[in-house]
Amino acid sequence: ADVAPYCTVVGLRGLRARQWCPTTCGCGEPFSGLLLDKVQNGCPSECVQKRRGIADRSATKCQDQPLNLTMIYAKGAQALFTQRGYISEALTSLAQRMETEGCAAVANGDVAGRDFCVGNSMLLTRIYFRPVKFVCPVACGCDGSGLPGQKRDLST
Questions:
Q1: pTM confidence score
Q2: Structural contact between residues 44 and 60, judged by C-beta atoms closer than 8 angstroms
Q3: 67, 78, 60: which is closest to 129 by C-alpha?
Q4: Contact predicate 114/121, CB 8 Å
Q5: Confidence of residue 49 (pLDDT cuts 50, 70, 90)
Q6: How confident is the model at residue 150, as a pLDDT?
Q7: At how many degrees (to 10) do helices 67-80 and 89-101 cross?
Q8: Which of 67, 76, 89 shows the shortest CA–CA distance to 119?
Q9: Is 145 left (phi over 0), alpha (psi -120 to 50) or beta?
Q10: Are 92 and 83 in contact (CB under 8 A)?
């Protein structure tokens, strides 16, 4: 529990927290607020495989998750996109809107929404993070409507 505040930290402290305490940090849970969940970010490969299995089963439903789960992702995004090397006003702003609008904020998020769905963004360099598509699959186009910023009207 003493390590929990370091789980979302960019840099060596966060890397070590995720390596030594992957369960506490949420490495294997697709609905945790941890967005730095790749092996290169310190999460063990077993956790990554477990998370993918859970997330794949969830994504097959093509149904956006309720606000309480989008808020967890949003808080993780706000923690990440205010840190050195990951600072992004657009992504932080979208994460703030997700707290009240849920997945609708992602669907209407244009480029930032697309970045959340694919799990990467071009800041100073390309950064990678946990995509929101497991929390907001409809907003990310599982229904064939396309990614945010490229949505098609399916009602016709």
A1: 0.87
A2: no
A3: 78
A4: no
A5: confident
A6: 86
A7: 160
A8: 76
A9: alpha
A10: no
Please name the residues in contact with 53: beta carbons below 8 A apart, sequence gap of 6 or more.
none
Amino acid, single-letter form, for residue 24 = T
**Residues 107/136, Cβ–Cβ less than 8 Å:** yes
Can you tell me whether residue 122 is helix, strand or coil?
Answer: strand
d(CA 28, CA 38): 10
Q: Taking the CB of residue 78, how many other CB atoms lie within 10 A of it?
A: 19
- Structure-block tokens of residue 33: 């607020």
Residues 6+ apart with CB under 8 A from 23: 47
Predicted local confidence at residue 31, as pLDDT: 86
Whether the CB-CB separation of 109 and 94 falls below 8 Å is answered with yes
Residue 56: predicted pLDDT: 64
Residue 116, amino acid: F
Angstrom distance (rounded) from CA 127 to CA 121: 5
Q: Are 40 and 61 in contact (CB under 8 A)?
A: no
Strand partners, 121: 127
CA separation for the pair 25, 35 (Å, rounded): 10
Q: Distance between CA atoms of 31 and 91, rounded to whole angstroms?
A: 18
Region of residue 62 (phi > 0: left; psi between -120 and 50: alpha; otherwise: beta): left
